[in-house]
Amino acid sequence: MPHYLGIDVGTSAVKAILVDERQTTIAEADVSLPTSRPQDLWSEQDPDAWWQAVHAGLDQLLTKDAAALADVRGIGLSGQMHGAVLLDAANRPLRPAILWNDGRSYREAQELGTNNPGLSRAMGVIPMPGFTAPKLAWLARHEPDTFRAVRKVILPKDYIRLKLIGDVVTDMSDAAGTWWLDEARRDWSDAALAATGLTRDHMASLVEGSQASGTLRPEIVQQWGLCSDVVVAGGGGDAATGAVGLGAIEDGSAFISLGTSGQLFVTTRDFSPAPEALVHSFCHALPGRWFQMAAMLNGASCLAWAANLLKRDIGELLRETEAVYRKPSDVLFLPYLAGERTPHNDPHARGVFFGLSPNTQQTDLAQAVLEGVAYSFADAKLALQQAGTPLPQAGIIGGGSKSQFWTRIFASVLNIPITRYHGSDKGPAFGAARLARLAVTGEAPEDVCTAPAVLETIVPEPRLVELYQRRIQAFRSLYQSLKPEFARAAQDRI
User: Fold this and answer.
1) What is the pTM of this model?
2) Separation CA 200–CA 168 (nearest Å)
3) Residues 359, 363, 366, 370: is their CA dihedral positive or negative?
4) Phi and psi dihedrals of 208, rounded to 5?
5) What share of the chain is helix, strand, coil (3-state, %, to 5)?
6) What pLDDT does 494 receive?
7) Which residue has the higher pLDDT, 268 or 493?
8) pLDDT tens track for 417-439
9) What pLDDT, in 10s, does the model give residues 272-313?
10) How confident is the prediction for the chain on average, in pLDDT?
11) How many Cβ atoms from other residues are within 10 Å of residue 447's Cβ?
12) Which residues neighbour 148 within 8 Å (Cβ) at sequence distance 6 or greater?
């Protein structure tokens, strides 16, 4: 029986999932990753740490089911978007990769937008510090010797592809997040590349996510007992592969992704740019499809941060918080630990607890964190509405989707029904496995990319909806009040 392997190069972990032709999960692996923050606003990882984690994940799968791994016919790749992996002439990393939640290039992003006002609609969004293009402009200014040595700029998952097949290739959906792709034409933009001192020679070859990008190198085949003709699909950025895993491939399909970061994602039939609303309009991982997305830099990572700060187990903290939950917390939390993208485009924004008193308990702080992240999604919903995209309902994926309690808060904050699915926390890796299958079989996406089994649909609670609307307004006012202070503090740090 043929099997398909999905590998997701996330920020906190590499996840691998092995599925059979019935789309049943046979085995999975999860290997944690470290992140380095050597300076304020910086966020970096060693590309070879990703490869070591893929090694460890494949070793786990080999131990769990060597026969199924030997039957793999296709591999799909997913990964954190926007990261700048800088390669020399021998395809070796010149420095640590600069990640999606790195804000150092805020000046360069602003300059790119000011100097190239006609490009943002074609690129699907205004240039923001997290994107790849501003990172290269920063590199040219601050590390000119490294910039001159760059021969290829690739994205995180594509470094794993390079190791697997020996070629530099990317897919449309991941390339979409660089600010170098003409989204409507699904091709590199010579004008955008020139704006950052680059040419097509610096870029990877482009394929659709459901197309083959190559086959495995012989040493990879030998090391893990794989077939010699295993196809590696184009794959996609984690948002798009999450959509494929959830079956969100038709016009209007929507979902919340609650992983390290957060996304509110809606598939569109056509390319529909809305840069003025700070909404991302990008190519999907399947041909002839696009999506609109509000992207938040802070998702379930906020809960992990709070639990670590309180020295508590996340599951235990959630259970205690749910047990005392009755209404919105009196404490407000701005979840901008790593700055924010939609709707503020503010790398200097920071996390804030507001409304503390002598009576504040750990559960009050935990509830404020859960609600603060949900309030940021209310801002995202408003941004999509301003871009002309309504959101009557949504699915939910990512690690945060495992919590029914958090999903309940989301439903009432957003005032929409939210559907949880079986296996939703493995969305991007599962979607990558589906893309691998499509690349091998040539099946119609509609036949393969169906919605997983529904776990439950949680509807808004009218009493909470009304109460939460008031807190959302307070949340927005708090950010606006503190925005000048965030900017002043950033100047002090410089």
Assistant:
1) 0.92
2) 12
3) negative
4) -75, 155
5) 45, 25, 35
6) 57
7) 268
8) 999 998 776 779 999 999 999 99
9) 998 888 899 999 999 999 999 999 999 999 999 999 999 999
10) 95
11) 9
12) none
Active site residues: 238
Q: Strands (DSSP E) along 23-71, which ranges?
A: 25-32, 44-45
Task: Round to whole Å and give the CA distance between 61 and 271.
Answer: 39
Tokens representing 10?
Answer: 């996330």
Residue with tokens 């184009």: 234
Question: How far is the C-alpha of 318 from the C-alpha of 334, rounded, in Å?
Answer: 19
Grouping H, G, I as helix, E, B as strand and the rest as coil, residue 122 is helix
Question: Beta 44-45 vs 25-32: how paired, if at all?
Answer: unpaired
Let me know how long the chain is.
494
Axis crossing angle, helix 404-414 with helix 462-493, rounded to the nearest 10: 90
DSSP string for 274-315? BGGGTBEEEE-SSTT-EEEEEEES-STHHHHHHHHHTT--HH
For residues 266 and 281, give the distance between their C-alpha atoms in angstroms, rounded to a whole number: 10
- Cα–Cα nearest to 296, from 333, 336, 332, 266: 336
Indicate whether 160 pLDDT > 80: yes
pLDDT of residue 86: 98
Shortest CA distance to 171 belongs to which of 199, 214, 205, 139?
A: 205
Residue corresponding to tokens 């070796």: 92
Tokens of 316: 């235990």
State the burial class of residue 367 (Cβ atoms within 10 Å of its Cβ: 0-12, 13-18, 19+). buried
DSSP 71-120: TEEEEEEEE-SS-BEEE-TTS-BSSPEEPTT--TTHHHHHHHHHH-TTTH
Q: For the residues 28-38, what does the mean pLDDT come to?
A: 95
Structure tokens at 190: 């010579």
Q: Mean pLDDT throughout 389-412?
A: 94
